[in-house]
Every structure is written in C-alpha cells, then in structure tokens.
Design goal:
nine-stranded mixed beta sheet, four-stranded antiparallel beta sheet
Length: about 240
C-alpha cells in the first residue's frame, strides 16, 4: 500500500480514532519497528507496529466484521483511554468482544448517545465538521432562561475562548430550564461554552441523536448494534454530503 499517516493507518485498522492515535503516539505508546513513533510519520503497513502494548495486525488478516454500536454513555465516563483521565472509560464500560472506539467525543459530565465503531473511514466521515451532520441534545440550565437567550443561541454565539462564532442552529423550549438544541458542528464543550457566555450554567446535558441514529429508550451504560435499516439510511446521508 502507499504510505499513509500513522494515525490514519491505526484508525483504518479499527484500533482507535485519529485523535486518540495522536495522543498515544505523543505519549510514546506506539512503536514502529522497535522505535517510538513520531507524530505525522507515514507507514506502509509492512512495518511491525505495536500500539499500547499490542501488535497491530491488518484488519484483512484479522477478518474483522464491520461494527457500529449505539451506546448510552453515563455521566462520569470518559471517551479517551489516556492515563491522565483517571476515570472509567467507555471502552472498558461496554467491554465489547472486538476492538471498537468512540466516534468523536462526549465530555465526562455529559451523557447519552455515543457511537463506537471499528471502521476508520466511517468514523472520519461522521466526524468531519464540514459535512454539517446534525446532533441533537436535551439541555438543562441552572435557572429559567429568557426568549432572548433562546434567540441568541439560535443565531450564533461568539466564543472568545475559541475565537469562533457558533453556526446558526435550532433550539426549542422544553420547560422553563430545559431546551432541545440541534447543532451541525462540534466545538470543544460547545453547548456549555455557549450557555456560559450568555450567563447560564449547564447542569445536565444529554445527546439523543446523531444524524439518523437515535438513543431511544436504551438504558444508561447499555449499547446495541445499529440495525441494517439504520446503516442503509446512514450511508445514504453520508453519500449526499
């Protein structure tokens, strides 16, 4: 195969996401032909690659079946396996029999829908911010909000800490402190930052949908496989972005 970036190779082999691969490389946990790997280096797949203490075998050789899981991540569980988190991680939580990793992130204090897969290309297509994929959340803040707050959330909020203004989005009231929001971007802790900028504090945040995939009545900590119909609809949505 043509040389590709090491993080992309690890993602395509179903080892971890590209972002997690870069973390592992920076931490010295990826070894290529007996030496510590470098961030950004390229590999052909013919090297002896060891990731986090385990040899990486090509997916074709492992005869891995494609997997896409819908997980209800509990609050307090993290999406990364790095040592610095010192908190339960979602990979250990679901203890799936084959290696899968999170598609994107859902911060430690948030709960709800998290996708996990062993398909690097699928994960990258879903996470690509330019594709404008919808993600839906139920959010509760610390005090009753105003109509002006909802309007500002809809039209976009300037986030000084990130140097960006959020894209216009859909927001609907649920009750005096709770609202539903649909985003098409995924800035770091975006909803929390938006609310804080406008003078509110998020006390509960739950993701209930990514594109056509819904959390439904899945219990906290449980998971299920995406159905064939869901996979077909997902592929159709990805095809038109």
């Amino acid at each position: 195969m043509e040389p590709v970036r090491l993080n992309k190779f690890l993602s395509e082999q179903g080892i971890c996401s590209r972002r997690e691969a870069d973390r592992l490389i920076e931490a010295g946990k990826v070894i290529v032909d007996g030496r510590a790997a470098l961030v950004g280096e390229r590999v052909t797949g013919r090297e002896k690659i060891c990731c986090d203490g385990k040899m990486v075998e090509a997916a074709e050789a492992r005869k891995v079946k494609p997997v896409l899981l819908i997980v209800n991540k509990p609050r307090g569980v993290v999406c990364t396996t790095s040592d610095k988190d010192r908190a339960p991680n979602v990979v250990d939580l679901i203890h799936y029999p084959t290696r899968v990793y999170p598609v994107g992130r859902l911060d430690k204090d948030s709960e709800g829908l998290l996708l996990m897969t062993n398909q690097g290309r699928l994960a990258n297509e879903i996470m690509h911010a330019g594709n404008l994929h919808e993600k839906e959340y139920i959010v509760t803040v610390n005090r009753p909000y105003t109509t002006a707050f909802l309007h500002k959330m809809c039209e976009g909020v300037e986030l000084p800490g990130l140097g960006e203004t959020t894209r216009p989005c859909r927001v609907e009231p649920v009750d005096e402190k709770t609202f539903r929001i649909v985003l098409t971007q995924g800035l770091n802790r975006q909803i929390r930052r938006m609310c804080e900028t406008l003078g509110y504090r998020v006390v509960a945040l739950k993701r209930i949908r990514i594109m056509n995939l819904h959390l439904g009545r899945l219990n906290s900590g449980d998971y299920r496989k995406a159905t064939p119909i869901e996979m077909k609809e997902l592929e159709q949505e990805l095809r038109f972005v």
